[in-house]
What we know:
Elements: E1 3-17, H1 20-28, E2 36-50, E3 54-58, H2 65-73, E4 80-85, E5 89-92, H3 105-115, H4 120-134, H5 149-161, E6 167-171, H6 179-194, E7 198-202, H7 206-212, E8 215-220, E9 223-229, H8 230-243, E10 274-281, E11 285-286, E12 292-300, E13 309-315, E14 321-323, E15 339-347, E16 355-365, E17 370-383
Parallel strand pairs: 3-7, 3-8, 5-6, 6-7, 11-17
Antiparallel strand pairs: 1-2, 1-4, 8-9, 10-12, 12-15, 13-14, 13-16, 16-17
Pfam families: ABC_tran, Wzt_C
Family: Belongs to the ABC transporter superfamily.
Protein name: Teichoic acid ABC transporter ATP-binding protein
Amino acid sequence: MEKIIDIRNVTKMYKLYEKPMDRFKESVSFSKRNYHEEFKALDNVTFSINKGDAIGILGTNGSGKSTLLKMITGVLTPTNGDIVVNGKISAILELGAGFNPEYTGRANIYLNGLMMGYNREEMEERINNIIEFADIGSFIEQPVKVYSSGMFARLAFAVSINVEPDILIVDEALAVGDIRFQTKCIEKMKELKAQGTTILFVSHAPEQVKRFCNKAAWLNQGILKALGESSEIVDLYEDFMKNGPDSGSEVRTISISSEELNDFQLPTNPDVLALVTKVAINKDSFKTFEKLEIRIDYEVYANSIEDLLLGVAIYTPKREYIFGPNTHLEKVSIPTDIGRHSINYVISELPLLGGSFSVDVGIFNNEGLVCLDYKQDILGFSVSNKYFSEGIVYMKHRWEVVK
Ligand SMILES: Nc1ncnc2c1ncn2[C@@H]1O[C@H](COP(=O)(O)OP(=O)(O)OP(=O)(O)O)[C@@H](O)[C@H]1O
């Protein structure tokens, strides 16, 4: 795979001044006094992008996406680290950037072409396509200062994609256009992708990234949190957005005691009739339809327990209850005599789609009315996939064309 963009240990510090005057004071200070605080917008980011990749850049507001893209285009320079770009970039970064507000739309097309390294004749070959794509009617002859944000987006997009770039960077520009224009842009981006153009795409709609991009990078507070196949990264990102910063990292695969169990002993407290002593899961991250297996060890301390039952419940991190069968409801008899027992709970084809999940295990009697021992959130697991469906669970279904 040919690397087209190589980002190595890139850090970007911004200087923050409390008052505008402080910047001036600092520049004239003989004693070299500091009037600013430093803010790290990007922190030691390293990754590379291969030729032909469509990579989505994900992250909440202020996570450093624009800063990174501006450094790739050369508008900003890194404080530390290096960025190597092997191709011609066409970028729609901030609406209106690269346009002269006093010039007409038509004159700005030539100006943009010039900045991309095309001479007037070369732009003359392209201008009709650009104007047709922008489709803003007679506004093309008006100074761009009178344009609406939608018109800006149309013109910027039309120019960027009609100049045969090696790398196309689209930062949120699609969000301003109407649906018809968005569709047209996506069609054109697909065409460029098919021709091998590398595309960097920032969108606040993760589904768009899932559908359009093969890769994704997730920035969080200036740090590259995850990088990989787009659908898997979007699942992680969406999970983080829904459940907060602690989700995912809290996924545990720990059994109640990681040490081997001691010899079986009756508890000193005679009211303790049975305990779940160990819970373990076969993996901590799954793909949909993989086999999930939870092993539950429990101990029974009295001979008189009727209707002993085990239950396993799966929850989202927000405690939305997804599924909770028990051995009584399903008429499965489990050992009830004094001693140590083990049960395997097996889902042969896990139907969950993306996200992280937690598991509770309980042991009860009397049809579940009396709880003997309950372990909440005793372990967790995550599910991520290549993009093939949306939602929490995959339901068996079929499509029938009626007409
Ligand atoms: N010129 C600047 N001077 C000081 N701080 C800046 C400057 N530009 C950006 N920042 C800060 O750097 C951080 C990253 O900003 P950046 O615009 O790269 O984020 P972003 O992920 O693109 O956000 P958004 O989704 O809102 O566009 C933010 O906290 C922002 O306030």
